[in-house]
Amino acid sequence: MKQLRHPGLWLALALTAAFALWPALASNKAYTREIAFTILRAVTFASSLNILLGYTGYVSFGHIVFYGLGGYVGFYLLDEHNVHLAVAVLAGGLASGLLAFLLGRAILRLRGAYFALATIGVNEAMRAFIKNIDLFGGPTGMTLNFRVYQSYGGPDQALWTTYLSVAALSLVVVLVSFLVKSSRFGLGLMAIRENEDAAEVMGVVAPSTKTWAYVLSAFFPGMLGVLFFFKNGNIEPGDAFVLHQSIEGIVMVMLGGQGTVLGPVLGAAAYQRLRGLLLVSPLFKNIQLAVAGVLLLVIVLFVPAGVVGWLRGRFAILRRVLE
Amino acid sequence: MNGQPLLQAQEVSKRFGGLQALVHVTFDLPEGQILGLIGPNGAGKTTLFNCINGIYAPEEGRVIFKGQDITGRKPYQVARLGLARTHQIVQPLNDLTVLQNVTAGSCFGHEQRSLGQAELIADEVLDFVGLAGWRDQLAASLNVAQKKRLELARALAARPFLLLLDEVLAGLNPAEIGEMVEVLRKIRDQGVTILIIEHVMHALMNVSDRVIVLDYGQQIAEGTPDEVANDPKVIEAYLGDPKLAERLMGEG
Fold this sequence. Notes:
- The structure holds two protein chains of two kinds.
- By secondary structure, chain A is mainly α.
- Chain A has helices at 7-25, 29-56, 64-81, 85-107, 113-131, 154-181, 184-194, 196-202, 206-232, 237-240, 243-256, 262-279, 288-302, 306-314, 318-321, and strands spanning 142-143, 234-235.
- The radius of gyration of chain A is 19 Å and the shape is globular.
- Chain B is α/β, with parallel strands linked by helices.
- Chains A and B meet through helix 7 and helix 8 of A and helix 2 and helix 3 of B.
């Protein structure tokens, strides 16, 4: 495991850990925790998406479907069956992974814009589907029985437990993202991204390789969804399958640098910071999504490699440090 | 030689709509030989490669590789059996380094090496084709001649039994052609069987043990380079003007 000594891994992990430790050092701990939670959630989502978008080159516009579905499955288990949070989180991840596996077989044959369109369709279809399932509360969703929090030391302690879980999850995702990139599997993904036909001629079994990348990139958002909605105490279709959150995920990955390990971490933090500033500005608070759209346009036009990609391309020395 | 040829094409036919691209193409390629494939543009040479390595499934006929019927198998299945190819239009993995390109060839090709072993093989092969100095550069930054070498290195890194080379000499200058021909001979000497498409006639005639001529998907001649070069049918149908043919052969 000589690649574990790569400074790029430790830089990405250290940055993520710094966000996670931020509340411990701040004076207003609960307030800072909420900001850090938003950042770590974004880091987890963006880094997972990057496995498909950055490494494999497939743009998933509806990636939030895995977050929503995982959230629903975990929430249902917590609310109706009183399972432990850890079990619910795992179940949410597995449910999303399974959905990605089945979808992968069907829509990963599509390339480019057709795949992107199909993923939007999947998200919208899933929202409509969940709305009509009485088991999951139909259009009004579900609200967590307050007593559930007692098992985790009361609501206040539960907030901290959730926070620490998301922090741990974000570190795991960054580590997995690095391990994938520096593995044989990752090389296969990047070969597919660069030229899928040539990759197949070289012997890369593209259909199954792509499917496993999709499963992996869906598994973590599924777990994340459970943690988020557990903390939220309430889940409904309109909150679980928000299409623009998918697009914000793409903005974060593109901003930081698609196909890099550090990029999504940096992009997620920067985007969340920007969003925070816009939301409190009287001028921009209603058009903050438009700003995200313009930002995406500017990145695609002028720095398609993102911040980390640009730095790597510009300064050869940084290629040893940034990954 | 153990009787069974390494590759056999039996009556392979392929149609694109109204165009009959290949008509009952049949040949044997014994182990250790270099078989040249020539013909005018549009004769079906690349289509034949695509039918052999699984990009197209032929409508009729069979392709037998190492005694197995591989007709209609996927390109990655064929690759894993030990058949590697290069492309007429180079297909580098642009955003990856030269080393990563070649490592991928070794990882996913015939020998299915682990990443660590594959990198060692890749370094050896890069040395062999003369690209060692470029190993950490992005593939996109290479010039055409280097990209052709990269294609070859990627295919070789798989350590295949059979190598399909699609115009590896096109676009190279005479000095580069000379170097590449030397490389091809060395590959053959290592025991790799080669099927090669080439327009640079004198080089092909030099290096091939036997030659097949395709014209409009028909196999119009087969034999040693000398036999084929002097076949009036080839001169007439393929080269058109016999004087032009003499001149082309004279370049060798």
